[in-house]
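Weekly structure sync, notes
Attendees: PL (lead), two postdocs, one rotation student
Agenda item 3: pending single-chain targets
PL asked that the sequence for the first pending target be pasted directly into the notes so everyone works from the same version. It is reproduced below exactly as submitted, 477 residues in total.
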Amino acid sequence: MPTNTLLLSLFICMPWALAQEPDWEYSAAVGAGFTSGNSDSTTFNAQFLATYRDPDEEAAYGIDYFYAEFSGFTSTNSLNIFGNYNRNISEKFFLGLSSNLYTNSVADVDYRIDVGPALGYYFFRDDKKLLSLDLGLGYAFESKNGETDNFLTFRAAQHFDYKLNEQLSFRQQTVVTPKAESPADYILTFDAALDLRLRNQWNLRLGVNHRLDLDPTPGRAKEDTLLTLGLSYSLNGFLKEKEDRADERKTLKKSVEKKEGTRMGWIRNAALTTGTSSGNSDNLNFKFDYDSAFRSKEREFFLKGGFQYAESNGNSNQNRLNASTRYNWKFSPATYAGIGLGFLHDDSATLSYRFTPGAHAGKYVILNSQGGLSLEGGLAYTYEKRGGETDGYLALQAAQRLYWQIGAYTYVTQEIAWDAPADDPSTFNINSYLYLDTILSDHLHWRVGMEYYYNSTPAPGAEKGDLSLNTGIALKF
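Predicted structure, written out during the meeting:
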């Protein structure tokens, strides 16, 4: 990488020196997912953005990193570091300086550096909205597939910010950088993000990033698109919050009312994790979970379902659907008996279907205002089609379940369920999960989840165990 990279890095870091100003806002977003077993995948994204604005100047810098790997094949690996600074020379015009460093190993872009000045114009600029356009010259340094080059460029950039209300804001930017000697060879980048402020320092963010390179590395696609959904966190609070506070910043814990772990009546949760990219990186990851519970002194009802799908370069490597329901009659506050039904479909484990209707009895070994820990056992009949072969048999079942409030703002739900043929308990299945939820607002939670499924006698060519880790939004209603 040329020595100009050092100069670019210094320029990108210049706003750090200005960060002592009180009007800087910082936000960060992270998402991750992991599976192993019959489907192997790793996904990770991290974003950081710092912005500053006053009547005479504005600045922004940030980092975007996206990574995805499926079955040992890296389908996404891109890094973007950027910075810009604008100084007003009149009410409508400004001078700007911008820089950008981009790498993408999947597209064989070792690095692409753009830096240059610009003259800009504000179509409108106030506390709620901003629309600007700037034009200028730049210089690019790049290395594609080991071949280096540097050249003069033109640059045009459009930026739009709109604050719909105190909770919802939209940010969008389009940048075009044609080669000066060949304007038809240009790079266009489009970034947009919709932020929903949840409470204090938390935002729900839906983002899209699109990059078009009309002079790509031979054999690589011209376009790359990334779509993400997740949480962002303001590292130093939002401006309105700072204006409202007196001697100390408001905190998440001070504004969220404590919830009791054990609650009578209905509780419903829905959680979503999703991410997609296309172009040189073609992959899709989607996970949805729903669970509901009804508790009273006389009975309990539980319903849980989930769907997880992932594909890379058009090939599905995960397609899993599971559902279960249980109904319990309580003989005392701690003892119960009930009936249940489970269903599972898993392409990666060559399991077409498995139905398990059954009956069970159980006992809460711990039950108080913070939650409960129960143990239960029973009998079921299993109908399944695995590896193209159908089977049916009487099965033994056992399960341990936990739901617990940890402090005022975090709670955990966990389950381990075991079943095996009654005539051969050495061939068994284990379904388990662990969810850790952090309360962001009265209805929105941030969930970190782990799921593990084990089959001691899998179909030929399939793995025994499947492990997945995910993070996402959970809606409580």
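Discussion points:
- Residues 272 and 288 are 5 Å apart (CA to CA).
- Residues 1-20, 237-261 have pLDDT under 50 and may be disordered.
Action: rotation student to compare against the earlier draft before next sync.
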